[in-house]
Amino acid sequence: MALTVGLVGLPNVGKSTLFNALTQGSAEASAYPFCTIDPNVGIVAVPDERLTQLQAVLAPNSCTPTAIQFTDVAGLVRGASRGEGSGNQFLADVRNADALLHVVRCFGNPSVAHVDGSLDPLRDVGVIEDELILADLEVIDDELPKLDKLVRTDPRSPRRTEFETLQTLSAYLADGRPARECNLSPEQAASSASYGLLSAMPVLFVANVDEQADGGGVAYQCPDELQSLGADVLVIAAEIEAEIVSLATPQEQEEFLMAMGLQERGIDRLIRSAYSMLGLITFYTFANEKLQAWQLPRSTAVAQAAGRIHTDMGKGFIRAEVAGAADLIDAGSWTALKSQGRLRTEGRTYHVEDGDVIQVLFKV
Ligand code: GDP
Questions:
Q1: Strand ordering across the sheet containing 99-105
Q2: Is the pLDDT of residue 35 over 50?
Q3: Which residues pair with 257 in a beta bridge?
Q4: Angstrom distance (rounded) from CA 68 to CA 273
Q5: Percentage of residues in the chain with pLDDT exceeding 70?
Q6: Which atom of ligand 1 is nearest the CA belonging to 72?
Q7: Mapping DSSP to helix (H, G, I), strand (E, B) and coil, where does residue 351 land?
Q8: Given this model, what pLDDT does residue 187 score?
């Protein structure tokens, strides 16, 4: 299952430009049959240099990268949570997302109208955050009376924690604070997870800036006022990204980046940031001539990781043979790695590390 990310922001902030750059920029995305689920939903293969190298060494029959699914929600306006501009319906599209990308307009371009008349990134962030909070509040306040009735009739109801958590969240949101900042215990978080609260999702702010000439190339600078939002602000110029992906070949793209003085595409930085924000790692399986990359939350036990690949593998887990991708690339083959004694055998509680290549032994 691909990681799912929803794009939110005001209208005219460059969301569609970014979405198109993201979804058209992935040459390998055709590996996914669902690439064109919907004009607003796109699946992007995660760029992975290690996987490319493993493929070169192992020459598998098939090679599948991990993926991120992006959903572009139509621009939200003030009052979206009360139904202005069909906002609430759009928001429903991202209730099952793992994270949000909040695109903030930081580019001038007087020919593109600003919905609130002037450039003010922090004010804009506030408008969207308020709408997410209000939309969550509506969901919770709709549910609370039903749960209240339930726990009154059955004081020992298993849904008591859920009820109390929603009460806490309701008060918190009513104060204008996003649910992700409310210090819930793991048990409380689990009890409210099914509501898909938007303001509880991890958020990566994307400052969509104009490119600025900087001697040999361009520099993207985060507007000072956005710095206060913390570390998770990614500075990008969506128009440049769209220009890069419109170039036909990887060589042309490379030359363009060099001419601009850029190290890599902003969308590659964006995908990496989404990964690290969510604490994800990548591991690989190689079986029956199939090489596949998988995403996994850091510190997951290998038996649990195997269960995500196939329930039988998790249930019947015996042991795993594990190698670091770098070692395997260096050795040139699984057999060579084994004969050099560089293959490890690990039990079910072993925590999978980023870059592990794993073969699972299991009984059915
Ligand atoms: P959306 O409503 O948020 O989806 O915004 P669009 O992606 O449709 O962009 C609105 C307009 O802003 C389009 O004319 C884009 O070409 C322009 N635009 C988007 N990103 C940038 C940017 O990084 N710099 C500049 N100068 N213009 C941009």
A1: 41-45, 67-72, 3-8, 99-105, 203-208, 233-236
A2: no
A3: none
A4: 12
A5: 89
A6: 4
A7: strand
A8: 93
266 lines ligand 1 (CB under 6 A): no
Query: Over the stretch 50-73, which tens digit does the pLDDT of each residue have?
Result: 999 999 999 999 999 998 888 888
Q: Is 247 helix (H, G, I), strand (E, B) or coil?
A: coil
Instruction: Find out whether the beta carbon of 211 lies less than 6 Å from any atom of ligand 1.
Output: no
Which residues are 296's β-sheet partners? 281
Alpha-carbon span 219 to 88, nearest angstrom: 37
The pTM of the full predicted model, rounded to 2 decimals, is 0.85
Task: Dump pLDDT digits (tens) for 271-297.
Answer: 888 888 888 999 999 988 999 999 998
Give the atom of ligand 1 at the shortest distance from the alpha carbon of 236.
23
Q: Identify which of 72, 128, 239, 260 to mutate to test ligand 1's pocket (most ligand atoms within 8 A of the CB).
A: 239
Name the token pair of 11: 């209208």
Q: Which of 10, 17, 222 to mutate to test the pocket of ligand 1 (most atoms within 8 A of CB)?
A: 17
127 closest CA partner among 179, 176, 58: 176
> Quick check: CB of 239 below 6 Å from ligand 1?
yes
Q: Is 296 left (phi over 0), alpha (psi -120 to 50) or beta?
A: beta
